Structure formats: structure tokens, C-alpha cells
Amino acid sequence: MITGIGYAVPNKVVTNDDLTHLYETSDEWIYTRTGIRERRVFASDDEAFDLLRQAAEQAVKNAGIDVETLDLIVAATSMPVQFMPSTSCMVQHLLGIKKNVPAFDISVACSGFVYGLDIASAYIKSGMAQNVLLVTIDNCSRYVDWADRRTSILFGDGIGAAVISAGAENDVPVINIKADGHVGDYITMPAAKGNCPFVDQTPTQQICTMKGQDVYKFVANVIPAYITDDILAQNGFAAEDIDYLILHQANQRIIKAVQERLGYDDSKVISNIERLGNTSASSILIALGEAIKDGKIKTPAKAVICGFGAGMCWGGGVINLRPGIFKTENIFQK
Ligand code: UT7
Questions:
Q1: Mind listing the pLDDT tens digit for each residue in 264-304?
Q2: Entry pTM
Q3: Strand partners, 158
Q4: Is the pLDDT of residue 334 over 60?
Q5: How close is the Cα of 43 to the center of ligand 1, in Å?
Q6: Is 272 among the residues known to form the active site?
Q7: Are 157 and 139 in contact, with CB atoms under 8 Å apart?
Q8: 330 is known as an active-site residue
Q9: DSSP three-state, residue 269
Q10: Nearest CA to ligand 1 atom 14
Q11: 4 contacts: CB under 8 Å, gap ≥ 6
């Protein structure tokens, strides 16, 4: 069960109007196509790591546990602030954890939170762990091509954190994860090359590219039916058993399509894409934390969540939102 969550976003805001100085676009075009008005970007590595520490500490505090009782740290990050040491090891260091608990990163892009939740649940169900800290962080602003108006309009930076702990059997999240590597070319980010003096390579930067229309069609074809059939029906849930829908914040039009399929009114649907854009692995956790803080989500409740993105990978589930998983007195950010 999820016992505590945390999130953090940087202060620096980039509006749609700011983007009009980079290329020909408009607030109206971007908002109509995506639902996004602005996004945030990390100003420095130090800021990113400081916010990562804050979000992780917040999740641990909300869970009401001592950091020394954690037995696993997983970081979901495909656009990391740094590759080595791993982000999960950085978290261990930033939280001052003395025990040599295992820590590793996973790279599943925008599905990072749901894949991480599946891993945490598997460790807990098997008895290999009692308390798992999962963090999500994608430094999207570092890897998007700011000259590419089809891609850079979408992404923003942000951080999420969750503690998953052993508990009542029926309180384990029901998670289902999937991948289709045959359409991997829809979203790509080859590693930078050109540093080896012994081979002939044209130097390249590490930049993310996206075939937006292909991604959109894939998601529109796969995700709505996946949520109703694979997540809800297969696990014995009817749409009306669920209190909230928290989708990966990729595009407001996709959120709307799923909302209509489930027949939910606006009060059940969580969206913050207008202010933060697509924060990749962190988008579900940030949306969840903000909605509890703003009183839009009332706990206890059941939420259906679903992430999707590069790979293509996707995954979702039904999670119980317990009272106290996010307490406003534990918000450290100004
Ligand atoms: O978390 C990862 C998941 N990713 C997603 O969910 C992204 C899914 N895809 C999308 O949301 C949409 O594909 C975008 C919002 C990224 C793009 O919208 P689109 O309707 O698919 O645009 P397009 O790339 O097909 O471009 C249509 C037209 C083109 O003009 P021409 O060639 O038809 O004359 C583009 O050049 O719009 C033009 N265009 C723009 N115009 C103004 C593309 N980007 C822009 C822009 N501003 N930023």
C-alpha cells in the first residue's frame, strides 16, 4: 500500500509566450492542441537534487517511518540529472541513510511511476521488502530540442516520491504493466556520441525526438480500452467503483477521451497539465499530491492511474488513497 507521497516542482516558469521567442508558435496553438499554458524547468543540478531530497523526505514523513526502516530505493528516471552515481544512490546519500539498502534506477520514461509501483509491490508481496521508497525525476528540459516546436512545447521538469509499505493484503495496488518495443522509434533519445578518438563518429548531443502524431494515435487506440478492460474489468472493478482518474499528464485531449469513455464528470478527473506540462515519470504523483493539497481529492478513495510513453511502455492500476498519505504540514517548498 502507498503510505506516503511527496512532490516538488522548480520555481522557473516557461510560458507558451516565452516559446514564441524560440520559434513560430502561439499560446492558442499549444493550448488548443495540448491543454498546456506553461511548464517548469530546473535552474541547476543543485536545485534538482535539493528538490529531490525535499520530495523524498516529504514522502517518508507522510508515511510516518524512519528512513532507516527503508529496505529498497528505486528511482524512475529516463532523463536523469546525472547518470552516475545513480539517482537512487543519490537519494540514499541525500537522506543520510546509513544502512546499505539496495538502490537502483529504472528507465521507463513516462511509465516510470507505475512500473516502479509494480516493482515495489512485487518486493513487498514476496517478503523481500517491508518499506520501499520510489522516486520519480525527469530533467526533460535538459534533453528536449528547444528548436523543435513539435516536442519542446510538451515537457516540463518535476519530481515525485512515494513510500510503499507492507500492509493488509487487499490494500496492495493492483498494477498491470505492458510494453511494445516494435514501435520504439516513436520516441527516441540516442546517447551522445563522438568522444572516442579511435572511431569515425560525427559528434551528437543527447536529444529526445518524438513522432507526435504516431504517439497520439497509439495512445488513443490503446489506452482507453486498456483502462476499461485490462485495469478495471479484469480486476473486477466497474467504472463507478472508482473515485478519481489520474492519467499521465501528456495531453488534455487524451485525458478527455478517457474521461468520456469512463463517463466521469470533471470532479473525478485530475489534471494539472495546464500549469506543469508533461513531467514524464512524475506527472501522476505530482497531480495526486497537488489534488490532495488543493482539496480536489478527498481520502480515503480509490483512484485509477495510468502511465504511457517511450518504449512504447504503459501501465496502470487501481490504488487506494489512504487518509494522511499527503499532509500539508509536511510541504517544505515555499
Ligand atoms: O509522454 C509522452 C507522450 N507524448 C504524447 O502524448 C504526445 C502525443 N502527441 C501530441 O500531443 C501531438 O502530436 C502534438 C501536440 C505534439 C502535436 O500536435 P499535432 O496535431 O500532431 O501536430 P503535427 O505535428 O501533426 O503538426 C501539424 C501542423 C504542422 O504544420 P503543417 O506541416 O501541417 O503545415 C506543424 O508544422 O502544426 C505545425 N506545428 C506547429 N504550429 C505551431 C507543429 N508544432 C507547432 C507549434 N506551433 N508548436
A1: 999 999 999 999 999 999 999 999 999 999 999 999 999 99
A2: 0.96
A3: 138
A4: no
A5: 27
A6: no
A7: yes
A8: no
A9: strand
A10: 212
A11: 58, 59, 60, 61, 62, 63, 64, 65, 162, 163, 324, 325, 326
